[in-house]
Amino acid sequence: MFIKTTLLFFITALAEIIGCFLPWLWLRKGGSIWLLLPATLSLALFVWLLTLHPAASGRVYAAYGGVYVLTALLWLRVVDGVRLTLFDWTGALVALCGMLIIVAGWGKA
């Protein structure tokens, strides 16, 4: 369950980040207004993906946050070309551990 949930969270995070990055490109970097169309679709996908989890919405959002932190930092590295620090990696590890703890309790609440 951990692997399936974590992979689904990573896909969800990418959908959210892309859905927010494309309008940023339009507003801050002079991109085409047509970027808003795939951004809207990406954000709709993000919302739909969040509904695929079996836990209560608040738990899903809390656990998702841990994976989002790591995904956003990987985006920072790969897309923005910013080198990650030890503090970045440590914070991502702590957030990911928090996600795993929350998911471990999904069937017990």
Helicity level, as a percent range? over 70%
Distance separating the two termini? 16 Å
Mean pLDDT: 93
Strand content: under 5%
**Count of strand segments:** 0
Q: Show unreliable segments.
A: none
Supply the helix-strand structural class. mainly alpha
Rg for CA atoms: 15 Å
Instruction: Figure out the total of helices.
Output: 4
Main sheet characteristics: none
Total individual domains? 1
Describe this structure in words.
Helix 1 packs antiparallel against helix 2, helix 1 crosses helix 3 and helix 3 runs antiparallel to helix 4. The mean pLDDT is 93. It contains 4 helices and no strands. The protein has one domain. By secondary structure, it is mostly helical. It is flat. The longest helix is centred in the first third of the chain and has 28 residues. Pfam families: UPF0060. It is a multi-pass membrane protein. Belongs to the UPF0060 family. InterPro entries: EmrE-like, UPF0060.
Write the layout of secondary structure elements.
Elements: H1 2-29, H2 36-50, H3 57-78, H4 86-104
Structural features:
109 residues, mainly alpha, 4 helices, 77% helix
Give a short overview.
It is a multi-pass membrane protein. With 109 residues, this protein is mainly α.
